[in-house]
Amino acid sequence: MNRPNLWSEGREILFEDNHLLVINKPAGLLVQGDATGDEPLSKKAAEYLRFKYKKPGEAFVGVAHRIDRPVSGVVVLAKTSKALSRLNEMFRDNLMSKTYWALTGKPPVPESGTLIHWLVKDTVRNVTKAYPTAHGQGLRSELKYELLGPAGNRFLLQVNPVTGRPHQIRTQLATGLGTPIVGDVKYGFIAPLPDVSIALHARQLQLQHPVTKEQMTFVAPLPDAPHWDAAREFHR
């Protein structure tokens, strides 16, 4: 039981109490297990809790929401079934405020606005297509965006999704604005990043604590990656 912590507080661990464990997820890490068999965030979190609290068995970790594997940033995990049940309801009903930062190769036109599309997920190819008008199989998807400013030779956008759909931000920025996210070759960016991440970061999450009802705001520091360096001066 002398294994060192898997994460450090203040960098990867943004908050922890009896009910919640809030992680700044590194890009490249799955949130929940899939067919690849790669160890996901949920398993790493369970291992962290088991060693930290010297638990004889498996620690409970519940996943209420996910962000894509190549995306970094805030993920809230539940340490109790009560917290998980209430978090599931909150995410299902969009009872929280999510803020993402994205780097693009060119500025959006217009510089701020709202995008509405109907998204259809191709589960075989793992890609999502956006339609500008109602589509039979599509889910209505909405986000708000604004250009924060130039960041080196890139442009930093702040994105607030109103709905939560698979690949929503990636698809809508590429389709609706013609500004695919840096490194996101799946949705039209010209080249991958060296670490195979994409320049999309779940920057902030605001929600009501599922048990104490306290209003909480979690802010995730940007990854230690060169493509984010020019964006560090923005602290909204």
Automatic annotation (TrEMBL):
<dbReference type="InterPro" id="IPR006145">
    <property type="entry name" value="PsdUridine_synth_RsuA/RluA"/>
</dbReference>
<dbReference type="InterPro" id="IPR050188">
    <property type="entry name" value="RluA_PseudoU_synthase"/>
</dbReference>
<feature type="domain" description="Pseudouridine synthase RsuA/RluA-like">
    <location>
        <begin position="19"/>
        <end position="174"/>
    </location>
</feature>
<dbReference type="InterPro" id="IPR006224">
    <property type="entry name" value="PsdUridine_synth_RluA-like_CS"/>
</dbReference>
<comment type="similarity">
    <text>Belongs to the pseudouridine synthase RluA family.</text>
</comment>
<dbReference type="InterPro" id="IPR020103">
    <property type="entry name" value="PsdUridine_synth_cat_dom_sf"/>
</dbReference>
<protein>
    <submittedName>
        <fullName>RluA family pseudouridine synthase</fullName>
    </submittedName>
</protein>
<dbReference type="Pfam" id="PF00849">
    <property type="entry name" value="PseudoU_synth_2"/>
</dbReference>
<keyword id="KW-0413">Isomerase</keyword>
